[in-house]
């Protein structure tokens, strides 16, 4: 797992070999220990180069091997032995040097990087800290503020930034190993006293306490209950205040708490889930490995409202030629200006030229005649979308993939408007589309695997976490949102306030509670959907029937709020009040509280005290229950798909791994028991009735989340 050769007569070359990313598995660590010993004991060898095979230095510790019983040589003494060597050791960094990979490089005496290499300590994103000496060496090398930034965010830096920070000694555009060998020859025999980072004093910034206090506050605010970023700050503080060996002890102590934590498990699960969703499969059996995508060089966006503008920006930033269509001249001009200034701002941030000339604007749909793929993003109205699809079918060249950016409409109905329904898929972007990472790629019964593969490939190119889902009302994300918000409305009827519900959800880790989020998104959107579904009809002001639809419990509270013209932030009031329309600071609203009291009185409801636990159980377990139904219906292929959707698109706290992973951590039997309890109390709420897949999983001993697919497969084969 590590190869050793002697090059240029006196340089020992150690090559890490563990495809695809040369992760530091037990075998690789053993290989490094053995080959370093060989090199150091060979009198002909005067210096050593460490590199990785296939153009990547090292992706860090092998995450798949993490567990209670770790075998193989530990990293800390291995890296220490390299640093203590009496012959210069040079790291030749190509591709990535991440986590343990960078820590290994920091143990070397010199670091040469290729100009395209990326370096970083992303352990925090896996619920860990750089505990192979990284939290102690990096601040000694580049100073406390820069080390805090890298370690608490886990961000990867380019070779150029690494050079500027002082992480690497040289950057090359040529063959990195050749450059490192040349460098190793030049430093052979030189003193290494000044090259061992662990012996450096840690640079002391002025106002050390204030700096740490400020960073800790920032981290606590953005981490929302995540432990790792806090531990990272504590570890760097140890580097700044303690001698190296004591700092290392502190690093070890902090890591011990993180390593076995549920948060680390959740974050590592999400790391693999994000990659697993790329291996998509449709119920027909066709999937990522059997379906070839069509090349997309030119795409069109139809409809330049907020969503269409965001999609246009995202496509242009990906390097595609884009035809942007908007029939209303005034809106076209407004959109052109908005798209251009977003592209200019983004380009300025990245220090590149804005890709303005990649976009052509038109009011005429004929302009899409030669594009490879179209994304329709007009107003959420089936009649309008059908009209657009009919026009597209007449205009587009044969084979053009037609995508609809609907969040809830039936994409199969749209497909039926075209002579080639196999070319139609949904691409559900999230607003703002150039920022939000999630993309739901929706297939209907007639969508071809090639059309799905094309949309998935485009999503990947755009840097989206793209998830393939089946066609149903709300797909996965919005479908699960229905029971979640319904429970929140019921809780208001029973005595809660928006503030109480939001506080419980935010303490759980959501970036925003449901009511604050709804105010931001706009309450009128849901109102329009409920009206078109025949739910939000004007009814008697009081009496049971006002709170019943189709025989089930319904809360008209949100409809009544909308009837008052309270659509959220944009109108200056919704579930909260705002200083003025468009203002973002939500304030508790006495009007809303007295409205709730009057509402309860009118309907004969007696307010009771509701605690955070009930808020979480009712909102989250109802949502999770729907997640199980989605799996049962085959709309999502596995729990990972649902979890990636929730973490990347709905603000679910990443350190809790997504709703389905969370259910497995809580215990499926407990989730089932609480759902049964609440369903007994509210028998007229179907979302609380435990779904049969959940019962089946509990009956089969609540297997871990990665084994649910087996149970689902068995269930489907019996249907
Ligand atoms: C204590 C803890 C210590 C000392 C650590 O080092 S923790 C690990 C820190 N390292 C990381 O967090 C890096 C994780 N990896 C990546 O960011 C990326 O994989 C990459 C930038 C190194 C390469 O990206 P890319 O080319 O896009 O490839 P993929 O991300 O798709 O990965 C390819 C497959 O390799 C698997 N992989 C990647 N890194 C690791 C790892 N450190 N351990 C185990 N396996 C890893 C990844 O899961 C892909 O495999 P599949 O899931 O597709 O089977």
TrEMBL record:
Show where the 3-hydroxyacyl-CoA dehydrogenase NAD binding domain sits.
298-471
Keyword Cell division recorded: no
Q: Name the UniProt key words of this record, in alphabetical order.
A: Fatty acid metabolism, Isomerase, Lipid metabolism, Lyase, Multifunctional enzyme, NAD, Oxidoreductase, Peroxisome
Give the EC number. Answer: 1.1.1.35, 4.2.1.17, 5.3.3.8
GO cellular component terms given for this protein: peroxisome
Recorded catalytic reaction(s): these are: (3S)-hydroxydecanoyl-CoA + NAD(+) = 3-oxodecanoyl-CoA + NADH + H(+); a (3E)-enoyl-CoA = a 4-saturated (2E)-enoyl-CoA; a (3Z)-enoyl-CoA = a 4-saturated (2E)-enoyl-CoA; (3E,5Z)-octadienoyl-CoA = (2E,5Z)-octadienoyl-CoA
Entry's localization field: Peroxisome
Please give the pathway this protein is involved in.
Answer: Lipid metabolism; fatty acid beta-oxidation
Q: Which residues form the 3-hydroxyacyl-CoA dehydrogenase C-terminal domain?
A: 474-578, 615-702
Please give the Gene Ontology molecular function terms for this protein. Answer: (3S)-3-hydroxyacyl-CoA dehydrogenase (NAD+) activity; delta(3)-delta(2)-enoyl-CoA isomerase activity; enoyl-CoA hydratase activity; NAD+ binding
Database matches in CDD domains: crotonase-like (cd06558)
Q: Which SUPFAM superfamilies match?
A: 6-phosphogluconate dehydrogenase C-terminal domain-like, ClpP/crotonase, NAD(P)-binding Rossmann-fold domains
Please list the GO biological process terms of this entry. fatty acid beta-oxidation
Entry's family note: In the C-terminal section; belongs to the 3-hydroxyacyl-CoA dehydrogenase family.
Subunit record text: Monomer.
| Protein name, as recorded | Peroxisomal bifunctional enzyme
Organism source for this protein? Cyclopterus lumpus
Name of the gene: ehhadh
